[in-house]
Amino acid sequence: MTKSTTRLTYENKIILAPMVRVGTLPMRLLALQYGADIVYSEELIDWKLLKSVRRVNDVLGTIDYIDKSDGTVVFRTNIKEKDRIVVQIGTCDDKRALKVAKMIENDVAGIDINMGCPKEFSLKGGMGAALLFQIEKAKAILLSLVQNLKIPVTCKIRVFENVEDTLNLVRELASTGIAAIAVHGRTKSERPQHLNRNSTIQAIAQELDIPVISNGGSREIDNYKDIFKFKNNCGASSVMIARAAEQNCSIFCKQGLKQLDDVIVDYLKLAVDYDNSPSNTKYCVQNMLKELQETPRGKRFLECQTLEQICAIWNLAGYCRTKQLEYQSRGLLGRREV
Ligand code: FNR
């Protein structure tokens, strides 16, 4: 018998933001372990998920969505995050969005639509921030999901330069019945070095009845207390954190930041436990190490190609080898690079 879960709500939450390549299962579980209330997946493009097939992975205890053509893992999740994982979809089409959301609905707690990505790939495809300028299309996508899914639907937007234009936008989006809205306080053309428009988020929070999730504050967030300062500055219900968590996921710890090496050890154990690909694991650790990659140990790390080689640098080679042997003996199929 499946356990019934309560519907996810978005008030007073601290949330791991969607991050391409960073927001895979080990990082999401680490964020939850450290104290995050909700974790967003990396953006998954609708057609990519649609050409995947759902597999129950008994060896790892996960549900995998595997690309039918090349066998790569498109999305991996497990029961530990089931009631707190929100999958972010990149889409420009209401029918495709609904099809893909229906496909994963029973495995996740919420669906988010990316309406903020400023990358050329998204904009050219009419996805991400392009939707901010096609309000009828954006509303059609959200409405179709809200009306047909059992789980809550949110969207993540950027702001316009003009506050009134932004308020018009969010009123329209909220009218579809979405459960909450995440707002990155920068415009489509602004970059991380630009100041986050916290006052625009505040105006949105005053305008809407649904929870507003403030985002874009990583430059102002060095410790746990700063999360609440940022939230108060924005007058928002919840906070969503990307770069501060990418660098040191223990930003979610009430007790304060942990040493980076301890965070890397915790992360690597989860990467091993869930057979994360070496390339994705390396990418995430690189983003934690940043300039430490220039040190002799950092340089040794950069030469690593296997999970065991990476683990050896943090004295986890034995842990990795034992797990991998166990998985092989239980019949885990070879993993292909993502
Ligand atoms: C992002 N961001 C992002 N946003 C989104 O909606 N979907 C995504 O897949 C990604 N991917 C992504 C990858 C990486 C490596 C970074 C650093 C950022 C944007 C992110 O969610 C957030 O909106 C911004 O980084 C601003 O928040 P912070 O970093 O100030 O907390």
3D architecture notes:
- The chain is an alpha/beta fold.
- The protein has 2 domains: 14-252, TIM Barrel; 260-329, no CATH class.
- Helix content is 40%, strand content 17%.
- The protein has 14 helices and 12 strands.
- An 8-stranded parallel β-barrel has the order 1-2-7-8-9-10-11-12, surrounded by 5 helices. Strands 4-5-6 form a 3-stranded antiparallel sheet.
- Helix 1 links the parallel strand 1 (14-16) and strand 2.
- The longest helix has 14 residues, at 135-148.
- The structure holds ligand FNR.
Write the layout of secondary structure elements.
Blueprint: E1 14-16, H1 25-34, E2 38-40, E3 44-45, H2 46-50, E4 52-57, E5 62-67, E6 73-77, E7 85-90, H3 94-104, E8 110-115, H4 120-124, H5 135-148, E9 153-158, H6 163-174, E10 180-184, H7 198-207, E11 212-215, H8 224-234, E12 238-241, H9 243-247, H10 260-273, H11 278-289, H12 296-302, H13 307-313, H14 317-329
Parallel strand pairs: 1-2, 1-12, 2-7, 3-7, 7-8, 8-9, 9-10, 10-11, 11-12
Antiparallel strand pairs: 4-5, 5-6
Helix pairs in contact: 1-10, 3-5, 6-7, 10-11, 13-14
The chain binds ligand FNR.
Residues 17-20, 22, 42-43, 88, 114, 116-117, 156, 184, 215-218, 241-244, 246 line the site of ligand FNR.
